[in-house]
Every structure is written in structure tokens, then in C-alpha cells.
Amino acid sequence: MNQRYPSTLLEHAVNELASLPGIGRKTALRLALYMLRRDPSYTERFSAALLTLRREVKYCKVCHNLCDEEVCSICANPTRDHSLVCVVENIKEVMAIENTGQFRGVYHVLGGIISPMEGIGPNDLEIESLVKRVAEGEVKEVILALSTTMEGDTTNFFLYRKLSPLGVRISVIARGVAIGDEIEYADEVTLGRSIVDRTEFSLKG
Amino acid sequence: MNQRYPSTLLEHAVNELASLPGIGRKTALRLALYMLRRDPSYTERFSAALLTLRREVKYCKVCHNLCDEEVCSICANPTRDHSLVCVVENIKEVMAIENTGQFRGVYHVLGGIISPMEGIGPNDLEIESLVKRVAEGEVKEVILALSTTMEGDTTNFFLYRKLSPLGVRISVIARGVAIGDEIEYADEVTLGRSIVDRTEFSLKG
Questions:
Q1: Residues of B in contact with A46 (CB under 8 A)
Q2: In which band, very low, low, confident or very high, does the pLDDT at B192 lie, cut at 50, 70 and 90?
Q3: Is B149 near chain A, with CB under 8 Å?
């Protein structure tokens, strides 16, 4: 629909809001009008938060996680196990794993996965820095926690070839039927894999 | 879920994005990370568009529609029928009616509807300016195009009492079964109203 906006300022704001992923023009208009209903200080604070993030954001020199200092709070924490490195695609995965409370090691954020379709090759990712980090000798195990997709598998394979000559232990996160899922509805590939990779039954759960 | 953010700058940005209506914390995080992936100029342009809108927005002196000048392009258009005023709740309704291409009159934007639940009374709306506009004599008909809700009906009734002493014609938009809707699924109130308010059949559609 070729919307006519009563104001070019409104139209520009809607254009920018609608450029965000998952935000359509109708939602963008609703958001712009919401800002107009709120006090001007709301929009000032809103814009300042985004600008400050974009201008002042830092990435950890060790693991490339987002942080406020030179080294992130996880890498700087002496109580974490620095010999155990979990390789993830992005910052979101660091947050998701941290929220499980199950991991006491450290991370390495690749910044993406190898995807020929999107033109992302190994050199676009933080792979060389991972190899260097492992070669320094402190790391004993690397856990590959990438998406269980074709691209994730390709990246896992590439990392395995790069890291295995260094004599480090390389593991991959368990794949199987999600907890709470009904077997009936699990897809065949996952179900087959969960049978092959079965673990010994334990009463501890 | 009590998310831990790797950076306070990221957390602030997520807080601001999640303060928008309909944007949850998960979407807010996705949007913030999207901005970090884009060039810094993207966030600069994005923020500038919102700030410029909020700082420089103007409302039409005549109809209170959003505009770039003192008077909006609809009110300033001499080919529109200035004796026919369509009363709407907000700017979105002006845009929706303009998009139908069916209306050649002008508008009056109330800026809301009377809602005791939300503490919005007649004095919070552009009602006095409408009465003044009608009293000046040029307006021949006022079309009430408010939501077909309890609040809309209350506002219609209030406006009717204020405007009818001025001798202007007052009409209300047609209510009935929406075009494309199946009778079977229409609600009883709408269906009943559509029978009472039936119009003469015409082959012109």
C-alpha cells in the first residue's frame, strides 16, 4: 500500500524504524506515534542509549564477547575454568548458556558461522584468534556449541581440522530429543541420532 | 527470566528498545545486536530521524493533524471541501481514510477519545477548537468517524450535544457487516445494527 504520510519527518522516522528486522511499516508507524505521545525526554533517552551502545561498545580482547572494558567479566573472572573454552556463534548464545548456570568455563565468540550462501568464509570469523588461543597451551578442551544446521556442521568440521593438530580435546554439545518433547513429534534425524548417542541410564536424571 | 547482559551499554539499549509497545526483551536484544552488526552510520541516521521527528514535529493549527508547516497539506488544499469536517481520534485514522481515496473534505483530529478508565476527559481533547471551528460558520456537516466502541459512542454523544445547538448537520460513519465478511461469523450486535440500518439495494453496488 502506498501510504501518504502527513509529515515528511514522520515518513523518515517510519522508514528508519521499518528498516529494523521484523518491524513492518504498520508497526513502525505505531512506534513513531507512540514516541510523539510520550514526553520529548523519552525519545532523547531512547536515542542516546542506542548511540552510546554503537559508539562505545567494546569487544573482549580474549573471547570477542561484548563488554564494557578491554576484557569481559567472564574472561576476567579467576573462578572460571580457563582451560575449558566453549565456541559459540554470537553474543546471544553466550547469554543463553550463561542463563543455564551449567557452565563454569570461558567462551570464544566466532561472530558468525561459515555460510557460503551468505558469503561468510573462515576469514570473516574469529577463527585465527581461537587457534592462537589454543596454541598458547592453557586450553585443555574446546566445546563446539554451534547451531545444529548444515552451516554449523561445516564450521565444526573446519574448526576440528584446525584444532586437532594442537592436541586439544574437542567436544560437541549433545544432540537429541529436547527435554519436554514428545517422542512422537520428534523429527526422524534427531530421534535416530538420540538412539545412536544414547547414554547410560542413571537415577540421578 | 533474569537475563545477565555482558555489557551495561547493551543492557541500557535493550531496556529502551523493550520500553516500546509490543517489543519484548528478546526482540529488543535482537534489534540491539542488529544495530551492532550494521555500520555505525546506520544507528546515527536511525537516531537522528527519531530525534528530528520528536523535536521538530508540528501540528496543524486548524485540524491538529501532524504536519511540517503551520497548516497541514489537507487544510491548505483549496480543492478540498472545507464545509465537510471528518472528526477522527488520531493521525492514523486520517491516513487510513486518506488511503481510501473516498473523502474530499477536511479533518479534525481529537487526539484521543473520552475514556474515564484511562482518565481522558473532554478537556484533554481538541473539542473546544472543533466547536469554535464550527461556530465560525463555514462548516456545513460534521462526520463522526470514531471507533465503534463504548468510548467512541460516549465521545459521539458528547460531541453531538456540543455541536447540535450550532445548527450543523451531524452524521456518523456507517456501521454494519464488513465487506468480505461472512454473515455466519458476524457478531450479533453488528448484524442486528446492519438490518436496522439497511439501505436501498442498488445495482451500482
A1: 16-17, 19, 50
A2: confident
A3: no
Please give, rounded to a whole number of angstroms, the shortest distance from the CA of A68 to a CA of chain B: 5
How far is the C-alpha of A67 from the C-alpha of A65, rounded, in Å? 6
Beta bridge partners of B67: B58
Mean pLDDT of A18-34: 95
Q: What's this model's pTM, rounded to 2 decimal places?
A: 0.79
Tell which A residues from 4 to 43 touch B, by Cβ distance under 8 Å.
4-10, 12-13, 15-17, 19-23, 27, 29-36, 40, 42-43
Q: Which residue of B has its CA nearest to A74?
A: B6
Single-letter residue type at A40? P
Contact B99 A3 (CB under 8 A): yes
Q: Answer whether B46 touches A (CB < 8 Å).
A: yes
Dihedral sign (CA B148, A2, B31, A109): positive
Residues of chain B neighbouring A7 (CB-CB closer than 8 A): 53, 57-58, 66-68
Q: Is the pLDDT of residue A62 over 70?
A: yes
Q: How far is CA A203 from CA A5, A196, A200, B39, B172, in A?
A: 65, 21, 10, 52, 71
Cross-chain Cβ contact B10/A66 below 8 Å: yes
Give the closest of B19, B36, B57 to A9, CB-based: B57
B8-56 and B66-172, same CATH topology:
no
Q: What is the ipTM of this complex?
A: 0.81
- Which amino acid is located at B19 in the chain? S
Mean pLDDT of B33-50: 95
Residue B84 has pLDDT above 80, yes or no: yes
Average pLDDT of chain A is 90
Query: Is residue B116 pLDDT above 80, yes or no?
Result: yes
- Give the start-to-end residue ranges of the domains of chain B: 8-56, 66-172
Taking the C-alpha atoms of residue A6 and residue B81, their distance in angstroms, rounded to an integer, is 18
Pick the CATH number of B8-56 from 3.90.930.60, 1.10.287.4070, 3.20.20.80, 1.10.8.420: 1.10.8.420
* Residue of higher predicted confidence among B196 and B156: B156
Identify the architecture of domain A66-172 in CATH: 3-Layer(aba) Sandwich (3.40)
Pairing mode of beta strands A58-59, A66-67: antiparallel
